[in-house]
Design brief:
The protein is an alpha+beta fold. The chain has 12 helices and 28 strands. It has a 6-stranded antiparallel barrel.
Length: about 500
């Protein structure tokens, strides 16, 4: 099983259980099948079906297809470093039959790859995936009428895998697809996917929305995916996902697949992200994201109990670090606060909060509702601009190495810790100004191993008590009862997180 980006066809292993299959017969006034007990399901009349299922989708396709283009790239990282999987003709990677590519795709020469794009502005602006055009030396766009025009990059955003390119026109207004509205989408809505799978231009498939708000998929840094069973294949990257009004609701980006082709699990970047990113790239060529200046993590049941969340509390994320002099520090947020709401929006999880913060304009004020020591409080925060990754990166200079500490008779007995030293600073990337003790060994089968503690973790708190050195750790950890749950604040490769250690 592997996960594949369609435009480039790269893959990596992913374990998903084998699929079952169901046959659905449509038409002739009958929709039915046999159940496991041999009974025929009741027939459904034409009157119960959406009109598109009776009349077809031709009117929608005729409306949107002229705005979906084939994007051929030379010199990008696509075909050389991440080749497309073998194609349907049994020929070379990318699906081209021996002797040349299918209609609408340029010959599959060295250093050439292909994807799709969507015209989103009559002036010639085209939205596609960043991985389709990254490092490209030449970009050619082929329209549904066969015209081929060179394009230039307007702006790229690797963190969402989106890019905007532009074709130069002579007083011509291109057909484009209008934006849809994310809030009106529902699981089960019928959708159409348009693009150039395997280089076959102007290809259309249909399906339904299988899920909304898919995050933590591991495809991009900021994720809000629409999952669909509409057939999506290599080459569909950057193509359109449209609703029954012919509106753009997503940009097709990735698939889960064991074969490199469609298996009914495709992902499109939702309009909720794509529209904002496209507008930013067109206006300034870059994306400026809002920034709270905190590190956050999901709440496990054990952490929720430790931080005194009500049993019926839904959602929320835990602050594991507050950046010094950042917007949250100035607003009074603290490590250990649980963020319940951002503005008027209830926080569902880490992915949800990161997305809505990133889309907030810099300088805008937001009320942040937090739970602190069992009590709700609301703080007002002014969003800053997210610094570059280089600025956020931390240094790792040397220190001293005092002796390690003895084991304890409680849930931390499986840990061996030592003071911060020059050696472990360099080995585990511990910043110079850090305080705490370093985990040097985790005993197999222990409670700390089950909790996920790893060698190299820097322990900064034990059950909300600050640990600056070995003496602090010994003093705090020795007071823990044998069957007591412990919450550790650890720093791992520069990222802080709370870890609950349950007694066995």
């Amino acid at each position: 099983m592997h996960k594949s980006r369609m435009g480039l066809g790269w893959a990596r292993p992913l374990g998903i259980a084998p699929w079952g299959f169901m046959l659905l017969l449509l038409g002739g006034g009958f929709v039915g099948g046999f159940g496991g007990n041999g009974l025929l399901f009741p027939a459904v009349s034409h009157a119960a079906l959406p009109s598109a299922f009776v009349e077809g989708f031709s009117e929608i396709v005729e409306k949107v297809a002229p705005a979906v283009v084939n994007v051929a790239v030379t010199g990008g990282g696509g075909s050389s470093s991440r080749p497309l999987p073998p194609g349907p003709f049994g020929g070379p990677p990318g699906g081209a039959p021996p002797g040349g590519g299918p209609p609408g795709r340029p010959p599959g020469g060295p250093g050439m790859s292909a994807g799709s794009g969507v015209v989103i502005d009559a002036r010639g602006y085209i939205l596609t995936n960043n991985h389709v055009v990254e490092e490209a030396s030449n970009i050619n766009v082929t329209f549904s009428d066969g015209r081929e025009i060179s394009a230039t990059v307007v702006g790229m955003d690797p963190k969402t895998d989106l890019a905007v390119i532009k074709v130069k026109l002579e007083d011509e207004q291109l057909p484009f697809i209008p934006w849809g509205t994310y809030d009106t989408l529902r699981v089960g809505d019928v959708v159409l996917a348009l693009g150039s799978p395997f280089g076959l231009k102007s290809s259309v498939s249909f399906g339904i929305i299988s899920a909304l708000g898919r995050g933590s998929v591991g495809i991009t840094e900021y994720e809000d995916f629409i999952q669909t069973d509409a057939a999506i294949n290599p080459g569909n990257s950057g193509g359109a996902l449209v609703n029954m009004k012919g509106e753009l609701i997503g940009i097709n980006t990735a698939i889960f697949s064991r074969t490199g082709g469609s298996e009914g699990v495709g992902f499109a970047i939702a309009v909720s992200i794509a529209k904002d990113i496209a507008n930013d790239l067109i206006e300034s060529g870059k994306v400026v994201r809002g920034w709270m200046g905190v590190a956050i993590q999901e709440l496990t049941p054990a952490l929720a109990q430790s931080f005194q969340l009500p049993e019926d509390q839904q959602g929320g994320v835990l602050i594991s670090e507050v950046h010094q002099d950042g917007p949250s520090a100035k607003a009074g947020l603290k490590r250990g606060d649980v963020i319940l709401a951002y503005g008027n929006e209830v926080v569902k999880d880490v992915n949800h909060l990161r997305n809505i913060v990133a889309r907030t304009k810099v300088g805008k004020q937001k009320d942040i509702k937090v739970l602190r020591e069992g009590k709700e409080t609301t703080l007002t925060l002014m969003l800053g601009e997210r610094p570059s990754d280089q600025v956020l990166a931390k240094a790792t200079p040397p220190g001293e190495k005092p002796p390690s500490i003895a084991k304890l008779d409680n849930v931390l007995s499986g840990l061996t810790v030592e003071a911060i030293s020059a050696e472990n600073r360099n080995q585990f990337g511990i910043p110079e100004d850090s305080k705490g003790v370093v985990v040097s060994k985790v005993e197999s089968g222990s409670a700390v191993e089950a909790a996920g503690i790893q060698p190299g973790d820097l322990i900064q708190e034990v059950s909300r008590s600050v640990v600056k050195n070995l003496d602090d750790y010994q003093r705090v950890a020795s007071k823990i009862a044998k069957e007591e749950l412990v919450v550790l604040l650890v720093s791992r490769r520069g990222n802080n997180l709370f870890v609950a250690v349950n007694p066995k």
